[in-house]
């Protein structure tokens, strides 16, 4: 395959970024905007030895999953990657993405995954779901101010005030801002020269309260003739907060460090479930409130709180999950790295009269291990306990130091909320090698039309009981059962690694029985009348006991 070759190819798979994948004589091509099931004509843009990237030139036979995109800019805009795929198929893609990572990175078997996986929670209306949008401003060839979205991987602005993912009010607000700029000769900021005033417009909408916030990010301190803009904006129903955020830095960070109120108040209010939040221009808040409620509902369902539990919510942001869970728990502790978010979390606890949530600023991988060590010191070796630990880390997942401490604390349940199923799978592998088991796993589609998917997983401790069940399975003469091999094999591997000793299933079962762990009636039962059954030597018995301890079976 060479650059500029034109090929006809059937799309048989979907890549992690939503691109179509097809094969031509064993050579793999990645083709953006091609939908699984399409037969397309594509032009090779980059050819490596075994794979290449091609541009979609023409859809020859459209896939049954191909739909007309709602937005005219769907292909060019960097915001949506799979708008041309039917929504049902998007959900299948997301389900497969999670499964694929659990299998490849997590090392879980298809059977294990089938047992725990529930179908992805989709949206009834997968458009207009975002409560927040940050529109960059620029200038067109004629010198007029424009606003819209960045084209994929660039900072070129596609002029579009009507993004299909945002609320309908965005369009009117943006048109008012553009008109104000034209009438008052106010220029858009230019990244290249660092000149011009208006950088971004942040618009937030409270889905439950219908309150609207507009914050203009400006390359300066003031907005000239602001009253002319305010006068128009306050005509819009629900307008609650108009602010500016000065940002004169020349980097890619959108917001300034502070904001100033031009009209109304500095925040809007919204609800997730019955928890109320005050959202300022600078605070983090989940962008899809409808799905967030489902996501946290699922986390709450998995945590299955009865009212007397101690819960940790790590990577808590503004305390959204913490406050959701606090209503059903005895005590919640939240940990978050951004101090401003913790201020918001405390404030949110206050306005909801929630007094059983405490928040700590710091890295989860430092705060929790430190808490654990101090607790042990102050309580004469007694270890800190948690009933449920919730983690909701950023894309890079959890630090291993944190996972180690979680394992030490032995919470009954771990609820893992993840925005990247690859790092999730890596972390689950660690937890499952250290005494936990996945009980439930479910994707929640927070970002329809994009390739992203959130995942919620419930883990609980592997119980000695589980081992009994598995052992009994063996007794049903299924000696090759995969789960079983894993358990005995894990013990064998551990003993070999830690003590350099090889032990047999027989010895393991003998030691298990000695330790009061039942192994089925007829399994390798030493019959006293049969003196030929070898007995496990002391050295190996101690090693197996150490393994049983390690796997928390005794
Ligand atoms: N659970 C929250 C936010 C999750 S987003 C919610 O649903 O609203 C992940 C959060 O982790 C962000 O707020 C980010 O600031 C924070 N974070 C990133 N690295 C961290 C670390 N090492 N320790 C603690 N928090 C961290």
Could you give a quick summary of the protein structure above?
The protein has helices spanning 87-104, 110-116, 169-183, 226-233, 289-303, 320-326, 339-351, 364-378, 400-409, 421-433, 464-475, 482-499, 505-514, 538-550; strands at residues 6-14, 20-24, 27-31, 39-47, 51-61, 117-121, 132-139, 145-150, 157-159, 198-205, 212-218, 239-246, 260-264, 268-272, 275-279, 310-314, 331-336, 357-361, 388-391, 413-418, 436-444, 454-461.
Main sheet characteristics: 8 strands, mixed
Q: What is the general shape? A: globular
Instruction: Using the 3D structure, state the CATH architecture of the largest domain.
Output: 3-Layer(aba) Sandwich
Whole-Å distance between the termini?
60 Å
Strand content: 25-35%
How many distinct domains? Answer: 4
Category from helices, strands and their pairing: alpha/beta
Tally of strands: 22
List of distinct ligands in this structure: S-adenosyl-L-homocysteine
Strand order of the largest sheet: 6-21-22-20-19-16-17-18
Quick check: average pLDDT?
91
CATH superfamily of the largest domain: Vaccinia Virus protein VP39
Helix content: 25-40%
Count of alpha and pi helical runs: 14
The CATH class of the largest domain turns out to be Alpha Beta
Pfam family, one: tRNA_U5-meth_tr
GO molecular function, one term: rRNA (uridine-C5-)-methyltransferase activity
EC number: 2.1.1.190
Keywords: Methyltransferase, S-adenosyl-L-methionine, Transferase
């Amino acid at each position: 395959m060479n650059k500029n070759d034109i090929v006809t190819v059937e799309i048989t798979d979907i890549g992690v970024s939503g691109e179509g994948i097809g094969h031509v004589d064993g050579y793999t091509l990645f083709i953006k905007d091609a939908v699984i099931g399409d037969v397309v004509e594509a032009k090779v843009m980059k050819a490596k030895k075994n794979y290449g990237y091609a541009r979609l030139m023409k859809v020859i036979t459209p896939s049954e999953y191909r739909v007309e995109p709602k937005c005219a800019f769907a292909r060019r805009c960097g915001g949506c990657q799979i708008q041309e795929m039917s929504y049902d198929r998007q959900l299948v893609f997301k389900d497969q993405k999670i499964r694929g990572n659990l299998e490849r990175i997590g090392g879980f078997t298809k059977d294990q995954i089938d047992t725990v996986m529930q179908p992805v929670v989709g949206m009834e209306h997968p458009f207009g779901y975002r409560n927040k949008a940050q529109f960059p401003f620029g200038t067109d060839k004629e010198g007029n101010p424009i606003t819209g979205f960045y084209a994929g991987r660039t900072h070129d602005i596609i002029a579009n005030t009507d993004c299909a993912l945002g609320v309908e009010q965005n369009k009117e607000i943006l048109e008012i801002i553009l008109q104000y700029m034209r009438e008052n000769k106010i220029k858009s900021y230019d990244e290249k020269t660092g000149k011009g005033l208006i950088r971004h417009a942040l618009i937030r909408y409270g889905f439950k309260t219908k309150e609207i916030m507009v914050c203009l990010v400006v390359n300066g301190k003031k907005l000239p003739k602001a009253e002319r803009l305010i006068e128009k904006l306050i005509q819009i129903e629900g307008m609650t907060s108009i602010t500016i955020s000065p940002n004169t830095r020349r980097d890619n960070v959108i917001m300034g460090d502070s904001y100033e109120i031009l009209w109304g108040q500095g925040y809007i209010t919204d609800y997730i479930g019955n928890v109320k939040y005050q959202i300022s221009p600078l605070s983090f808040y989940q962008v899809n409130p409808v799905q967030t409620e489902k996501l946290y509902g699922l986390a709450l369902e998995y945590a299955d709180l009865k009212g007397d539990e101690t819960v940790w919510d790590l990577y808590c942001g503004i305390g959204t999950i913490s406050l959701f869970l606090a209503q059903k728990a005895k005590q919640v502790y939240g940990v978050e790295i951004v101090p401003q978010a913790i201020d918001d979390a405390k404030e949110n606890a206050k306005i909801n009269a929630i007094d059983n949530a405490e928040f700590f600023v710091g890295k989860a991988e430092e705060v929790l291990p430190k808490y654990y060590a101090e607790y042990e010191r102050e309580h004469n070796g007694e270890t800190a306990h948690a009933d449920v630990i919730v983690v909701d880390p950023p894309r890079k997942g959890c630090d291993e130091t944190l996972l180690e401490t979680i394992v030490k604390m032995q919470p009954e349940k771990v609820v893992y909320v993840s925005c990247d199923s690859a790092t999730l799978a890596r972390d689950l592998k660690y937890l499952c090698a250290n005494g936990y088991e996945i009980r439930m796993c479910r994707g929640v589609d927070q970002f329809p039309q994009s390739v992203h998917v959130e995942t919620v997983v419930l883990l609980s401790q592997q119980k000695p009981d589980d081992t009994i069940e598995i052992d009994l399975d063996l007794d049903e003469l299924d000696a090759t059962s995969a789960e079983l091999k894993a358990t005995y094999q894990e013990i064998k591997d551990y003993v070999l690694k830690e003590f350099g000793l090889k032990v047999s299933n027989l010895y393991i079962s003998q030691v298990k029985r000695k330790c009061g762990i039942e192994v089925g009636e007829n399994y390798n039962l030493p019959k006293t009348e049969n003196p030929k059954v070898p007995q496990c030597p002391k050295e190996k018995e101690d090693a197996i006991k150490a393994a049983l301890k390690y796997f928390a079976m005794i």
